[in-house]
Amino acid sequence: MEQPTMRLIMRKASGDDEDSQLSRSSTDTPLMTRRAMNPPPPHGRRQATCQPKVPSRKYWPDLVLASAHLKATSKFRWFWDIYTMLLLCYTAVAVPFEIAFVQQDDVDALFIFDRCVDLSFCIDMVFNFITPYWDPHANAMVEELPLIIKQYLTIFRILRILRVIKLVRVFRASRIFSRWQAQLNIPMAIFKLAGHLATILLLAHWLGCLWGGVVHFEYHTDAQGNKLSWMSVYGIDNKGMQTQYVTSLYWAVVTILTIGYGDIPVVTLEEKGIAIVCMIAGCGTYSFGTVLMILLRLLNDTTKMRMRFLI
C-alpha cells in the first residue's frame, strides 16, 4: 500500500480533496451567479459607496457659515413673527403707560416680564442676521451669511439696532406686515384699512399717555406750594392710575376727533404745547385721505400728459 505523502495529508487537512471541491462548487453556485449578475467595475473606476464624505476639520467653519441661515418662509420664522408682533403690540401699549403712570421701580412680575421682552428682541435681532433677504438686482434670495450680515449692517439698516430701545422697536411692525402681505392672499385694501385703524388707536393711546405723563415731569406750584396741573384742577391728582389713564385717553380722543368739550382744563405752558400737538395730529389724521386723493389725481394727470407726448 502506498504511503500518503505530506502534500496529500495537507490537502485533506485543508479540505481541498475532490469531494470537498465538488461540494464547495455546488454550494458556491449562487454566489457565482450573483457575481455574474453584478460584474465588478471596470479597471480605473472606483465603485460608489453609500457612506457620506466627511469634510476635513479645516472646512468645518465654512460649512457652518454656509448652512447657518433661517428661511424667511419657514414655519419657525412665521410663528416667530407672530410672537414678535405680539411683543410689539405689548411694547406699544405698555411702555408709554409705564412711563406716564407707573412711578414705582420695584422688582416685581411686571419688571421681570419686561426684561424677558427685551431678551426676546435681542434674540430677534440675531435671527435677522441669519435670515436671507431678497436682492432685487439679482432677482434671487441671498442666503450667504457674510452677505446677509453685510446687508444688515448697512447705513440705512444700522438704525434697526436702535430698536432694542423700547418704543423705537415698534416701527419694525411695518416690515413684518410687508412680509405677511407677500405670503398671505389678502387684498391690499384690507391691510391699508387695518393699518390706518391701528395707527389712530395707537396715536390716541400715545397722546393720552403723553397728556397724563406731563403732570409728573413738568408741573408748577401755587402760592401755597401745591402742585398746579390739569389733574389737580380736575380733581384726580390723588386718584388711582386707572382713573388718570382713562381721563387722559378721553381727553386725547376728543381732541383727535376735533370735538373738544373743554371740560378738562389746560393749565401750564407745557400742557398747552401738548394740546397744540394733539390738535395738529387730529387734523392730520382726517386730512390724510384728502391729501392722498389729491396726490393720486396729480399723478394720474402727469401720467396722461406723458402718454400724450409719447403718442
Q: How are the elements arranged and paired?
A:
Layout: H1 6-14, H2 18-27, H3 29-37, H4 60-67, H5 75-101, H6 109-129, E1 133-135, E2 140-142, H7 145-152, H8 173-183, H9 188-217, E3 220-221, E4 227-228, H10 230-234, H11 241-256, H12 269-310
Antiparallel strand pairs: 1-2, 3-4
Helix pairs in contact: 5-6, 5-9, 9-11, 9-12
Protein name: Ion transport domain-containing protein
Domain Ion transport: 79-288
Membrane topology: Multi-pass membrane protein
Describe this structure in words.
It is a multi-pass membrane protein. GO terms for molecular function: voltage-gated potassium channel activity. This is Ion transport domain-containing protein. It comes from Aphanomyces astaci. The protein has 311 residues and is mainly alpha-helical. A two-stranded antiparallel sheet has the order 1-2. A two-stranded antiparallel sheet has the order 3-4. It is flat. Helix 5 runs parallel beside helix 9 and helix 9 packs antiparallel against helix 12. The chain has 12 helices and 4 strands. The longest helix has 42 residues, at 269-310. It folds into 2 domains: 61-184; 186-311, Helix Hairpins (Orthogonal Bundle). Helix content is 63%, strand content 3%.
